[in-house]
UniProtKB/TrEMBL annotation:
Protein name: Cytochrome c peroxidase
Compartments where located: Periplasm
Cross-referenced PROSITE patterns: CYTC
Cytochrome c domain sequence ranges: 50-152, 204-329
Record-linked Pfam families: CCP_MauG
SUPFAM superfamilies given in the database record: Cytochrome c
UniProt-listed InterPro entries: Cyt_c-like_dom, Cyt_c-like_dom_sf, Cytochrome_c_Peroxidase/MauG, Di-haem_cyt_c_peroxidsae, MauG/Cytc_peroxidase
Residues binding heme c 2: C217, C220, H221
Organism domain of life: Bacteria
Cofactor (UniProt): heme
Posttranslational mods: Binds 2 heme groups per subunit.
C-alpha cells in the first residue's frame, strides 16, 4: 500500500517493539502509481530528509508572522486536509479577516498555478504571499530571516539541509516546498479501488455515482487529481466585496470571476466550500450547480446549455454522486503523524 505521505518515510518495526525503536527510512518523493507525472521541477529542489524536516518546522513556525502568533499551520490545519475549518474566509494575524477561504495543501507537485485567483506560478515563491499579506501574516521576509537566525535550532537545521548555516530566502522557500511537496493525498477508497488494493470495490451507489461524476463533473474535476488546474467561472453570484478572481492577477476582461478549480479530494474535511466559503455543505454545492448558476460575465461554457444553466441532476442522482465523492476522503492523509507539528 502507498503511504499517505507518499515516500517521506517507511516505518518498519519488529513485532511488539515500541515506536522509538522503529527503523525510519527516507525515500524522497515517490509518485503514486495511479497519478500522472508531477509538474514541479525537482531538479532544482530535490526533497531530502533534512530538508523536509526543516520545511515542516518552518511550516509550523509562528515567527513567520509579524507578532509571532500565526504559522502556515494556523490556516492550513492537517485534520481539515490543511484548510482552516469552521471559517468561511481565513482568519489571520490579530484575527483579521481575509477575503477567501484557505485552500487545501495537498498534491501540490501537480499544480501549475496557486491560490484561488492565481498570480503565482512557482511553488517556491507562493509562501511570500501569505507572509507579506496584511490580513494574513503581515510580515517582511527580511524580518523573518533575522528572527530565524537568532535561533540555534534553525542554524543547525539549515546546515543539515543545505550544507552551511546560512539562512536566506531561497533556502527558506525551498525547505517549505520540500515539506509541502510531500503532502500527498492518494490513499482514499477511490485510489485503492483504482489500484486494485485489498479487494476494494465501490458499492452500487458509489459506482453509479462514479458514472454520473464522469458524465457531469469530470470535464473540470479530472481524475485522478480531481481538478484540471484551470480557472473557471462557475456561476456564483458576486459577493458584497465583488471578488474578480483571476482578473485581479491578469487584468484581462475574459478572466473576470474565474477562480481555480479545486480538487474534490477530502471534501469531508474541508468545509465550507467555494473560494469564499459560502456553502456549508456538499448538498448546497450541488444545489448551486442544479439551480443557482448565475449568468455572470465569462460563465464557463460547460454550464451554459441552450435550455438551461447548470447541471441537470435529480435528487436520486445527487445522492449517488455524494456517495461517490465520499470515496475521495483520505483518512490516512489527515492523520499522518509525519505531517503533524513535531
Amino acid at each position: 500500500m502507498v503511504m499517505g505521505l507518499l515516500g517521506l518515510f517507511i516505518l518498519a518495526c519488529k513485532k511488539d517493539k515500541p515506536l522509538p525503536e522503529q527503523i525510519i527510512t527516507f525515500l524522497g518523493f515517490v509518485k503514486p502509481v495511479n497519478f500522472p507525472d508531477p509538474v514541479y521541477n525537482f531538479a532544482n529542489n530535490k526533497p531530502t530528509k533534512a530538508g523536509v524536516e526543516l520545511g515542516r518546522a518552518l511550516f509550523y513556525e509562528p515567527r513567520l508572522s509579524r507578532n509571532n502568533t500565526i504559522s502556515c499551520g494556523s490556516c492550513h490545519i492537517q485534520s481539515s486536509a490543511f484548510t482552516q475549518h469552521g471559517h468561511d474566509v481565513s482568519h489571520g494575524i490579530d484575527d483579521r479577516l481575509g477575503t477567501r477561504n484557505s485552500p487545501p495543501i495537498m498534491n501540490l507537485a501537480w499544480n501549475k498555478a496557486f491560490m484561488w485567483g492565481g498570480g503565482v506560478y512557482d511553488l517556491d515563491l507562493q509562501p511570500i504571499v501569505p507572509i507579506t499579506t496584511h490580513e494574513e501574516m503581515d510580515e517582511k521576509l527580511d524580518n523573518v530571516m533575522n528572527k530565524l537566525k537568532q535561533l540555534p535550532k534553525y542554524t543547525s537545521m539549515f546546515k543539515a539541509a543545505f550544507g552551511s548555516e546560512e539562512i536566506n530566502t531561497s533556502r527558506f522557500m525551498k525547505a517549505l516546498s520540500q515539506f509541502m511537496l510531500l503532502c500527498i493525498s492518494s490513499n482514499s477508497k477511490y485510489d485503492k479501488v483504482m489500484r486494485k488494493e485489498g479487494g476494494q470495490t465501490f458499492s452500487p451507489a458509489e459506482q453509479e455515482g462514479y458514472v454520473l461524476f464522469k458524465n457531469k463533473c469530470a470535464s473540470c474535476h479530472s481524475e485522478p487529481l480531481f481538478t484540471d488546474g484551470s480557472f473557471r467561472n462557475n456561476g456564483l453570484a458576486p459577493s458584497a466585496i465583488n471578488d474578480l478572481g483571476l482578473y485581479t492577477a491578469t487584468l484581462q476582461e475574459t478572466d473576470r470571476y474565474k477562480f481555480k478549480v479545486p480538487s474534490l479530494r477530502n471534501l469531508q474535511y474541508t468545509a465550507p466550500y467555494m473560494h469564499d466559503g459560502r456553502f456549508l455543505s456538499l448538498s448546497g454545492v450541488l444545489d448551486h450547480y442544479r439551480s443557482e448558476v448565475q449568468a455572470t460575465a465569462n460563465l464557463d461554457p460547460l454550464l451554459q446549455k441552450e435550455s438551461r444553466r447548470g447541471l441537470a441532476l435529480s435528487e436520486d442522482e445527487k445522492t449517488k454522486l455524494l456517495a461517490f465523492l465520499s470515496t475521495l476522503n483520505d483518512e490516512e492523509f489527515i492523520k499522518n503523524p509525519l505531517l503533524a507539528e513535531q
